[in-house]
Amino acid sequence: MKPDSNILPAPLRGIIPPMVTPLLDRDTLDVAGLERLIEHILAGSVHGLFILGTTGEAPSLSHLLRSELIERVCRQVAGRVPILVGITDTSFVESVNIACKAADSGAQAVVLAPPYYFPAGQAELLEYLRHLTPELPLPLFLYNMPSYTKLVFEPETVVAAAEIAGVVGIKDSSANIVYFHRLQALLKKRPDFTLLIGPEELLAETILLGGHGGVCGGANLLPQLYVDLYNAACSRDLQTVERLHKKVMDISTTVYSVGRYESSFLKGLKCSLSCLGICNDFLAEPFHRFRSAERSAISQHLQNLGILQDN
Question: Which of 91, 119, 130, 196 could form a disulfide with 171 if both were Cys (CB 3.0 to 4.6 A apart)?
Fold first, then answer.
């Protein structure tokens, strides 16, 4: 962990877990679970923490709950690692409001996906960023998440955005490695601009080929695994990379694959944390936690993976 996280590294490197949001019901934080989860993640020597992203169910949470989460996380982390706060919203003003709350609470950066619902063109997205960024009190990471927002930050748009003061990097969750490599090629003269990968299944090759880090959902569950994989890739220890990448894929093909819907990743992750006694597995609506059959399957997977001991 970095001793002074008030200074955001350029580029930001390492594993920055997108933290789940522990809930007791649709508008109440699981405070005790949140506290345990934060310490569990930080114990894995991660390099930062990203809250209010996709894994954090941000679009489903009230603005009041988001504000409470920001306050509690920043207070507990207390500068041990940089905190990145998601500010994606359909409202320009609300994105600014969340960013101001993050800055007031002690976060180091904010993260923004394209505003969803209205299909903006690339020129419109760039104009939006040029209007928004001067209003933000913290450095901004772009967030490319086309499967959910239905919009892409095209590579040329990212290059243009990188020239805007305050835009410091991008998290790419497209799972399109060609897109990521194109960003690397176009931004090779900007070594200070952070390039982070979202899908953990692509973490190893991304780091080996020059990416700066990963925003890996599985690091909620096994933070040290992803840190060790990152470190092995940085050291080009290919034997260790192969071994640890297999563990990541074992999680992906078991824990994330229970259930029938696209929400299975999040349900499996939250259920796993609940099975380990870390936090509640309530999900914001329209989703629900895994029921008994799926929970039993998750528990069995965790035992098979050596994550949960058979009682």
Answer: 196
